[in-house]
Amino acid sequence: MSTATEQLHVQNGLVPDPTTNPKPESESEPELETEPAPVPEPEMKPEPEAKPEPVPEAEARPEPLPEHELVVADAADPKVNEVVEASIQSHSPGPAHPELKKDEGSRTFTMRELLSGLKNDQSNDVVNDSSSPYGYSEESPQEQHSEQNNAAMELINSVTGTDDDGRSRQRVLTFAAKRYASTIERNPDDYDALYNWALVLQESADNVSPDSTNPSKDALLEEACRKYDEATRLCPTLHDAFYNWAIAISDRAKMRGRTKEAEELWKQATKNYEKAVLLNWNSPQALNNWGLALQELSAIVPAREKQTIVRSAISKFRAAIQLQFDFHRAIYNLGTVLYGLAEDTLRTGGSGHPKEVSPNELYSQSAIYIAAAHALKPNYNVYSSALRLVRSMLPLPYLKVGYLTAPPAGKPIAPHSDWKRSEFILNNEGLQQVSKSEAKHVPQGISGRSVEAAIKVDVPDIVSVSACGDLTLPPGAGLCIDTIHGPVYLVADSWELLDGWLDAIRLVYTIYARGKSDVLAGIVTG
């Protein structure tokens, strides 16, 4: 049994919990002569208490989690000056590429691997548009660089911090900014220095009081965006710059509410997340943030555009989960966007298309993801509050109930005419087919004797779960559950419904692999 579990860990991208087995930092590329300097890395802030927002139909709505925020070294670190010095010195022989903080379960790729894997048309898409809103020219005179540096330093120097900790951190940031400004004056094409300076400006914005006007948080973020723009113009493959640039733009958009200006900023943010993902496809956090930006954009655009943007957000969250099955933030955020889609579909009546997913099914799917996020992180208050809101939408005492087309018992490869559409139930124990005679009286547990099940898959026996396009299967959305006893083939009613089955089964196994099956059992039976 342990062998099967370990095998699924490898195939499904599961990794040990980072709190018990922290992952060592990746080594620098062998062709670089100097070690990449440590730079400020994105870090998620603790979630606030759940604050369901009032929405139409007198129904509360779970809030999406925020994006990653930026953080710099603590001022109490006695080596902070050495860190800044090393960061400056690393630019001369061979520019090191500052890396984003890697999400657990994500392999680190070198820039050479990324470049060799990109197609020519994708590379062309990454190059900045000539119509950049920040207006940098190809050949800026030395005086122009000096003026820009002075303006940025004036902003940095005017930040004092709101408390002792903030003031201490700001002193470190100011010191770093001076060094980056000096480096850029000597070499205006040093994109690493521009990138690091942008990070300093972005972090300084967090040290500004919300009611401050001199400097304003927006002015600091705008200047950070200028630095990111220039850095990516000089090095169009700097994926971490596109990523953090998108975060800065998102922060500016949040200040503007649901206005036309905010809409344009959210569109810019989504484009930069797209570029970051094109250059570093193996980043679940970038995909998650991309989905969040699309979710925010969908709340501003005209109604005729909303549906397309929402479905795009769903695809980004789902892609993030497929890269890292235990990425609870993306799991929860997918639940919130499905909840919103269910509300919209219920309010508008939907498109009337026969294959369109019903509002009740969307609510149920939303509840599955929120329940899974809670099972993975039961101590997160925001997940607990959202679960109380949506738990009744689950097909209790199960996590998921629906229809799949299955072959006769014991005959995985049978004539298409022998395959029958029947009801299946899924909970923390596994997946099981319900016989026609008992379909109207679904049992209280998968192990119940009253069910004459032809197909049963226990969670510990699962090796992998994937979509399947085998020609031996009947027409439709094929599903393959590989187990230690052999593969089990099923067919979903549509590809959209198949996504729900794939995610649900993978999440149940992920929760089992993390040792949290008892939490999930409490949700569906409690």
Automatic annotation (TrEMBL):
Chain positions covered by the region annotation Disordered: 1-148
Biased composition (Polar residues): 1-10
Compositionally biased residues, Low complexity: 123-139
Recorded superkingdom: Eukaryota
Compositionally biased residues, Basic and acidic residues: 42-82
PANTHER family per the UniProt record, alphabetical: PROTEIN HLB1 (PTHR45005:SF2), PTHR45005
Protein name from the UniProt record: Uncharacterized protein
Organism of origin: Malus baccata (Siberian crab apple)
